[in-house]
From TrEMBL:
<feature type="binding site">
    <location>
        <position position="196"/>
    </location>
    <ligand>
        <name>Zn(2+)</name>
    </ligand>
</feature>
<dbReference type="InterPro" id="IPR021120">
    <property type="entry name" value="KduI/IolB_isomerase"/>
</dbReference>
<keyword id="KW-0479">Metal-binding</keyword>
<keyword id="KW-0413">Isomerase</keyword>
<comment type="similarity">
    <text>Belongs to the KduI family.</text>
</comment>
<comment type="function">
    <text>Catalyzes the isomerization of 5-dehydro-4-deoxy-D-glucuronate to 3-deoxy-D-glycero-2,5-hexodiulosonate.</text>
</comment>
<dbReference type="InterPro" id="IPR027449">
    <property type="entry name" value="KduI_N"/>
</dbReference>
<protein>
    <recommendedName>
        <fullName>4-deoxy-L-threo-5-hexosulose-uronate ketol-isomerase</fullName>
        <ecNumber>5.3.1.17</ecNumber>
    </recommendedName>
</protein>
<feature type="binding site">
    <location>
        <position position="198"/>
    </location>
    <ligand>
        <name>Zn(2+)</name>
    </ligand>
</feature>
<keyword id="KW-0862">Zinc</keyword>
<comment type="pathway">
    <text>Glycan metabolism; pectin degradation; 2-dehydro-3-deoxy-D-gluconate from pectin: step 4/5.</text>
</comment>
<dbReference type="InterPro" id="IPR011051">
    <property type="entry name" value="RmlC_Cupin_sf"/>
</dbReference>
<feature type="binding site">
    <location>
        <position position="245"/>
    </location>
    <ligand>
        <name>Zn(2+)</name>
    </ligand>
</feature>
<dbReference type="GO" id="GO:0008697">
    <property type="term" value="F:4-deoxy-L-threo-5-hexosulose-uronate ketol-isomerase activity"/>
</dbReference>
<dbReference type="InterPro" id="IPR014710">
    <property type="entry name" value="RmlC-like_jellyroll"/>
</dbReference>
<dbReference type="Pfam" id="PF04962">
    <property type="entry name" value="KduI"/>
</dbReference>
<dbReference type="InterPro" id="IPR007045">
    <property type="entry name" value="KduI"/>
</dbReference>
Amino acid sequence: MTNYSFRYAISPKDLKRYDTIDLRNEFLVHDLFVKDSIQLTYSMYDRFIVGGIMPVDQSLKLETIPYLKSENFLDRRELGIINVGGKGKVTVDGIEYVLNKKEALYVGQGCKEVVFSTAKGGQALFYINSAPAHKKFPTKQVSQKDAEIIQLGEEKYANKRVLNKLIVNSIVETCQLQMGLTELLPGNVWNTMPAHTHNRRMEAYFYFDLEAGQTISHFMGEPQNTRHIFMQNNQAVLSPEWSIHSGAGTSNYSFIWGMAGENLDYSDMDICPPNELK
């Protein structure tokens, strides 16, 4: 079963009038993992799609949705997949890829059939991002050993973390989609600080591996006009190109960042010093 929803893009001027309910309705993506279901959210920010896939008793095929106006989901799109659960399998046009937790798969534009299933003895949870594509690039699996790993932050600032670049242009050829996974070390809670914006790209954050009973406050908005959204485990948030995207949790956690837009330059950021945020 496939369920889908739609989100409009909004102006930063509109954000100033939003209350908590408005913020959550416009930007928070919840209920990503539903038994034997594909959950998709189509956003007008760079026509980015965020989704969660939880195959339990059956395999799930990625079907097209009305917003795409295409016979197959990937006729004019590319797809990034990261498994955040137990061992799972993704079959792309008859070729099977086994993904362990925190491993990724890039699927190129034009592939006809993508099927998700859980391997014996585990429960796979597939988090997906998709963006429009103008060219077909090869499907490629990215394991942890293939990732570009960077140590970031300091315990002094409670932001010591490990950045795993998975579906990025230094590892996988893509049209515009970029994805990676960041792990906060125990005792560290801040991600992406100093915060930044990048007007050339939108972004989506997916938070997972958060301890039960804990929460994450995701900060968004213009640097001098910020807002926050409290989030739970296995939830995502859309981040417009004009918005910062940063967060702090009541315990450590992991998150996946996915981007699409004007360029593939990971370092293309407009930094906002922490003492200048408002």
